[in-house]
């Protein structure tokens, strides 16, 4: 075939020369040994029914659709590594690179079958592996065993998740069943094709076509469902913090090489990434490795600068474990191993803000927003003492002023879990305004950022950026800093560097 007759899509296959003969097809399907035994039931499976019930009871009689999302093209026929949408991961317990293209449906029970313990049946639609005599086995680079390894069979997926399983090819028909009598909602931003399918089915079945608000309500509920973590989730959070702690040890150990490298920030980034991949699924977000004045660019992820002796290095990094829960930790380290007096002064002020915020978070009846307010009182007081604030700390703290926020423009806390900024679609009354409750997991991360071109601060402060970020779990008795074992005080940081950065 000449190039002119081939579509551009067909041309993508020009580099392959797959045998087409019947002899080959039957030969490649023969004489393969037993596959290894499939997975055991996952530890998370026991927690799923309670999650389904808590969500389902807000949408009685409605079909709820949670797509995993699909592979995203990185370039041409090369995709990004897959990571499922967090609502899907939460409701199926699937993690790692499972399960592109899959869809979880919470199928509503009718009035006869509905019980206080079960409002919906959870059905996972996915593409199970095919036999080794199928063309898929050797010819399908998306699903084939020769290309992506042996995927799970339907039975194995049922064992792993405890969910009912259906083939993804039956999704359309099953979503369409009884529509009109049954309403349907979908998490809208997970998979454009599934959202479009649901939209088409709505129109075909006479449901109102403007479903945006309905879908947004489902996304909000799925996000709010994660505000209180169960026991399994808390133990995964602890694992994520432990892998992150090990990653920070690698960071500190990489300092001698980073200090001599023309892009030392990349050395730091790479050291953490290696640990996160070795021990977990990878990063929960792109690492911020910010030397010197780069720390004053809050989302510095370019990480292409050198480490300069006498300056500070801010590293904000989190490992995501195989279940997809992530930590979110920041440490600020002196490049040459010792803080200067001014650096230590700023560092200690930020540390005091962290500690006071935790103390407030430990008190009963405290609201999420009170944690930020607590940190800000400490920050404003120090800025006043250093003669930097144009008014007193007290005056600065009133809502009409807020001068101190010039040097700490971000929030102090956010929920943390499957997403680094977890529960982001939750209503304000359940997030900022909510009273802290057992099972909540969030960060405390105040900072002070003195840009090198900031003419409102004395010269000795310019170019210093400090953030200290820890991960907190609310327990029955207060607030626990689960990242406490990653050195935090200025003395402990110096000792850490003396021990590992040789
Ligand atoms: N690493 C992003 C954050 O701290 O919120
Ligand atoms: Mn954070
Ligand atoms: Mn962070």
Would you kindly provide a written description of the structure presented here, covering whatever features stand out?
It comes from Arcanobacterium buesumense. Residues 43-195 form the Aminopeptidase P N-terminal domain. With 502 residues, this protein is an alpha+beta fold. Helix content is 35%, strand content 14%. A five-stranded mixed beta sheet has the order 6-5-4-1-7, with helices on both faces. A three-stranded antiparallel beta sheet has the order 9-10-12. A hairpin with a 2-residue loop joins strand 2 (73-75) and strand 3. It is globular, with a radius of gyration of 26 Å. Bound molecules: glycine and manganese (II) ion (2 copies). The site of one manganese (II) ion (MN) has 5 residues, from loops.
- First-to-last CA distance: 63 Å
Q: What's the total number of strands?
A: 17
What radius of gyration results from the CA coordinates? 26 Å
Largest sheet: 5 strands, mixed
Mean pLDDT: 96
Structural class: alpha+beta
Assembly category: single chain
CATH class identity of the largest domain: Alpha Beta
Helix content: 25-40%
Total count of domains: 2
Strand content: 5-15%
CATH topology of the largest domain: Creatine Amidinohydrolase
- Assigned CATH architecture of the largest domain: Alpha-Beta Complex
Shape, principal axes of CA atoms: globular
Uncertain residue ranges: none
Strand order of the largest sheet: 6-5-4-1-7
Q: Are any ligands bound, and if so which?
A: glycine, manganese (II) ion
What count of helical segments does DSSP give?
17
Q: Could you name the CATH homologous superfamily of the largest domain?
A: Creatinase/methionine aminopeptidase superfamily
Catalytic activity: Release of any N-terminal amino acid, including proline, that is linked to proline, even from a dipeptide or tripeptide
Family: Belongs to the peptidase M24B family.
Protein name: Xaa-Pro aminopeptidase
InterPro entries: Aminopep_P_N, Creatin/AminoP/Spt16_N, Creatinase/aminopeptidase-like, Pept_M24, Peptidase_M24B_aminopep-P_CS, X-Pro_dipept-like
């Amino acid at each position: 075939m000449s190039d002119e007759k081939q579509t551009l899509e067909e041309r993508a296959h020009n580099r392959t020369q797959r045998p087409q003969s019947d002899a080959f097809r039957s030969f490649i399907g023969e004489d393969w040994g037993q596959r290894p035994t499939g997975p055991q039931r996952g530890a998370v499976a026991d927690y799923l029914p309670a999650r389904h019930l808590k969500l389902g009871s807000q949408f009685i009689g409605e079909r709820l659709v949670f797509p995993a999302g699909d592979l995203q093209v990185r370039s041409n026929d090369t995709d990004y590594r897959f990571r499922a949408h967090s609502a899907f991961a939460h409701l199926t317990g699937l993690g790692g690179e499972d399960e592109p293209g899959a869809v979880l449906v919470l199928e509503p029970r009718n009035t006869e079958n509905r019980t206080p313990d079960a409002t919906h049946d959870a059905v996972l639609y996915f593409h199970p592996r095919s036999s080794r005599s199928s063309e898929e086995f050797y010819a399908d680079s998306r699903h084939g065993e020769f290309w992506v390894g042996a995927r799970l069979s339907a039975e194995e997926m049922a064992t792993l998740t405890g969910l009912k399983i259906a083939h993804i090819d039956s999704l359309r028909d099953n979503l369409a069943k009884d529509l009109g009598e049954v309403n349907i909602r979908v998490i809208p931003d997970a998979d454009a094709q599934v959202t479009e399918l649901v939209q088409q089915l709505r129109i075909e079945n006479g449901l109102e076509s403007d479903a945006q608000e309905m879908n947004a309500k489902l996304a909000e509920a799925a996000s709010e469902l994660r505000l209180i973590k169960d026991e399994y989730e808390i133990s995964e959070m602890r694992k994520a913090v432990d892998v992150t702690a090990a990653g920070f040890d690698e960071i500190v150990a990489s300092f001698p090489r980073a200090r001599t490298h023309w892009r030392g920030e990349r050395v730091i980034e790479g050291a953490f990434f290696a640990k996160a991949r070795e021990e977990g699924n990878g990063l929960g977000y792109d690492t911020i490795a910010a030397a010197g004045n780069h720390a004053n660019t809050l989302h510095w992820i370019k990480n292409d600068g050198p480490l300069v002796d006498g300056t500070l290095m801010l590293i904000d990094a989190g490992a995501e474990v195989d279940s997809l829960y992530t930590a979110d930790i920041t440490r600020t380290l002196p490049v040459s191993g010792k803080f200067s007096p001014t650096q230590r002064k700023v560092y200690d002020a930020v540390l005091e803000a962290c500690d006071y915020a935790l103390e407030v978070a430990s008190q009963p009846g405290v609201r999420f927003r009170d944690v930020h307010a607590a940190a800000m009182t400490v920050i404003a007081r120090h800025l006043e003492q250093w003669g930097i604030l144009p008014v007193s700390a007290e005056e600065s703290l009133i809502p009409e002023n807020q001068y101190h926020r010039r040097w700490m423009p971000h929030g102090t806390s956010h929920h943390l879990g499957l997403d680094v900024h977890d529960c982001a679609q939750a209503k304000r009354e359940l997030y900022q305004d909510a009273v802290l409750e057992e099972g909540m997991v969030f960060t405390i991360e105040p900072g002070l950022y003195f840009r090198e071109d900031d003419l409102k601060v004395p010269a000795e402060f310019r170019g210093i950026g400090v953030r200290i970020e820890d991960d907190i779990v609310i327990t029955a008795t207060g607030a626990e800093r689960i990242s406490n074992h990653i050195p935090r005080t200025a003395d402990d940081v110096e000792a850490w560097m003396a021990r590992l950065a040789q």
